[in-house]
Amino acid sequence: MEPREPESTTIKNMTTSECLQLLSENYIGRLAYISGRTPHINPITFYHDAEEKCILSYSSPGFKIQAMKKHRPVALQVDDIRSIQEWRSVLVQGNFEELEGSTAKKQLHRFAEGVQRTIAKKDGETPKFIQDFSSRLQERHIPIVYRIHITDIVGKSRRDQE
User: InterPro entries recorded for this chain (predicted)?
Assistant: First the structure.
C-alpha cells in the first residue's frame, strides 16, 4: 500500500504575536553566534522577557561569551515539534549585551523565576534546581548574565490537513 499524501500541506508564516507566544511557552533554544569566520550553535536555557522585549540567559565565562562580546549580532531558534506534519519554529535575531553588578543579579533572579513558571506551565513540574539560583546570587562569583535585545522575529508553522 502506497503512503497517502495529505490533501493539503500548509506551511505558513507566523504572525509576530504567534512567534512571541511560542517563545513564552518554551525555555530551551539554540543560540547561534559567530567566532572569527565560523558560525557556532549551542543549546541554551532562556527566558523570554515580554515586558523588556528581550531574551535573558546566563553562561559560565568562556568561548561563547568572548565570541558574543566581539560579534554582538546573534540568533536564537526555538521549535515546537509535535510530528513531521505539525511543527512551529521561530527565529529571533538580536544583539548580545552582557549585564553586570546589581542589574545582572536582578536579571538572573528574573530569569530563574521566569524559567520556573514556564516549566510549570509547559511540563507541570516545579524543578528544584531553579531554587539554587537564589542562593548563588549571594556568592561572590555569579555566572555571566546576558540579554539579547530582539531586533527581528520570524516564524514558520506546518499543519497538514487530511
Answer: Pyridox_Oxase-rel (IPR024747), Split_barrel_FMN-bd (IPR012349)
Q: What is the pLDDT of residues 138-160, one digit of tens each?
A: 445 568 999 999 999 999 999 87
Cα separation, 91 vs 77, whole angstroms: 5
* CA neighbor of 24 nearest in space, from 78, 72, 65: 78
> Other C-beta atoms within 10 Å of 151: how many?
11
Q: Which helix (H) or strand (E) holds 19?
A: helix 16-24
Q: Which residues of 33-47 are buried (b: 16+ CB within 10 A; e: fewer)?
A: bbeeeeeeeeebbbb
Q: Locate cell 509535535: which residue?
A: 82
- Measured distance between the N- and C-terminal CA atoms of the chain, rounded to whole angstroms: 18
pTM over 0.70: yes
- Chain segment 93-117, per-residue pLDDT in tens: 999 999 999 999 999 999 999 999 9
- Please state the separation of Cα 21 from the chain's center in Å: 12
Identify the three-state secondary structure at position 2. coil
